[in-house]
Amino acid sequence: IQSVKAPKAAKRLPDNLDVDRMARLLDIPGDGPLVLRDRAILELLYSSGLRLAELTALNIGDVDLMDATVSVMGKGRKERVIPVGKYAKDALLSWLDVRSMLANSGEQAIFVSQRGKRLSPRSVQARVDYWAKRQGIDTRVYPHLFRHSFATHILESSHDLRGVQELLGHANISTTQVYTHLDFQHLAQIYDQTHPRARLKKDDEEH
User: Which stretches make up the Tyr recombinase domain (predicted)?
Assistant: First the structure.
């Protein structure tokens, strides 16, 4: 009996928001400095799949809006350069236009609080939670959920696991492979819609 090993607990799949709910969350109203800051934060989290610590550690010099990239120092002190999508780039430009209204002189952090200092991870969590409730999102939303959604949506569109691994900054492909389980339902739908035998079966059921 002692030699019998207990079965491994199933690895919990990461949560994610579907594309429609993510779009609703990102469509926050207003144009004041704090709203522009928060919109840039949300767009960048989703556009680039940043970890919360990576986001709050960003300095002005880490963003290249000409090339539409951000440079981050990830786990293990490994630097990676990540593309920034159009919506995130536009949101960053709008925020940077008014950032000086809040930032203290000499402050290098991209995202600052009302006191002009670097925004803390806890503050970002609070703002994410605030906007999720304000936008009527019917599930718990937290910063890392944007990263999960980013990876899931990219994988659904590209099916490039290695590419997603690089974007997320995972040292091992096995860490990224958890998203293939999330993608199975999407792949099953593609199969049903495109495979000749799947289509034939569906057509037979309709006639």
Answer: 12-192
